[in-house]
From TrEMBL:
Entry-linked InterPro entries: 4pyrrol_syn_uPrphyn_synt_sf (IPR036108), 4pyrrol_synth_uPrphyn_synth (IPR003754)
Residue span, Tetrapyrrole biosynthesis uroporphyrinogen III synthase domain: 47-209
SUPFAM superfamilies in the record: HemD-like
Name of protein: Tetrapyrrole biosynthesis uroporphyrinogen III synthase domain-containing protein
Top-level taxon of the source organism: Bacteria
GO biological process entries: tetrapyrrole biosynthetic process
GO molecular function terms attached to this record: uroporphyrinogen-III synthase activity
Length: 238
């Protein structure tokens, strides 16, 4: 049976791509269109005066390095994963805070210990889920990118899919919701689906629909962990 990964293929390590391909046909279709947004003058001022900038998504990191880094060279950058921290280090960013585990709750616990006067700004997208970061009363937010999707893109994905698909890695609540629209268009291309997710918010949304879903057991290297779990489950099912 086939795999569907709602994540860019070029961001999946070659060894993982090989493991997936060895188990069956694998399709990589990110169900999103990400673009940076033009910031207002007040937003730029907030970023420029921040002591800590919080990044919880790879695209927010891309926007920061490409457009915003020079606005706040003095700021400490707080990130969810060592992978994100490595990209920043390689780009010359030295003041970093890394969550012990790859989730918002872990990062939130680190940031809550900062002094009350700390100016802390979360650089986020329009659909970013704040299931833990919003517990930081001193945290301010700036939208730096837009996550959009259209009916035409839904139809294009439906036309591109090759059947049958039974194991799906879903990377966000928005991707899951968009995938349901695709499934409605071409239900025959999907078998009995098991979903694999990277975090709590997507796990809870899929559980609420009473569908089969599996999440990470450890919140480190979650992408690798879940792709390897897909492969093991497929091997054991044969």
């Amino acid at each position: 049976m086939g795999f569907l990964v709602t994540y860019p293929q070029e961001k999946v390590a070659p060894d993982l791509q090989a493991q997936l391909a060895a188990m069956g046909p694998t399709q990589y279709l990110p169900l999103r269109h990400l673009t940076s947004v033009t910031l207002t003058a007040p937003d730029e001022h907030l970023i420029a005066t921040s002591d800590v900038l919080v990044l919880t998504s790879p695209f927010a990191l891309t926007v920061y390095l490409g457009h915003l880094r020079n606005l706040a060279p003095q700021a400490t950058v707080a990130v969810l994963s060592q992978k994100m921290a490595t990209k920043l280090t390689n780009a010359g960013v030295q003041r970093l805070v890394v969550a012990p585990q790859e989730n918002q709750a872990s990062l939130q616990r680190v940031l809550q210990d900062y002094p009350g006067g700390t100016i802390m700004t979360w650089l986020r997208g329009n659909l970013t889920v704040a299931h833990a970061m919003d517990q930081l009363p001193k945290l301010q937010m700036v939208q730096v990118y837009q996550n959009t999707w259209s009916k035409a893109q839904t139809q294009l994905v439906a036309d591109q899919l090759a059947a049958p698909i039974t194991r799906i890695l879903v990377t966000s609540p928005a991707s899951f919701q968009r995938l349901q629209q695709v499934i409605q268009l071409v239900p025959a291309k999907f078998g009995q689906i098991t979903y694999y997710v990277l975090g709590k918010s997507t796990l809870e949304i899929i559980r609420d629909t009473h569908q089969s879903v599996i999440g990470p057991t450890q919140m480190k290297a979650v992408l690798r962990q879940m792709l390897q779990k897909m492969c093991r489950d497929e091997a054991e099912s044969r």
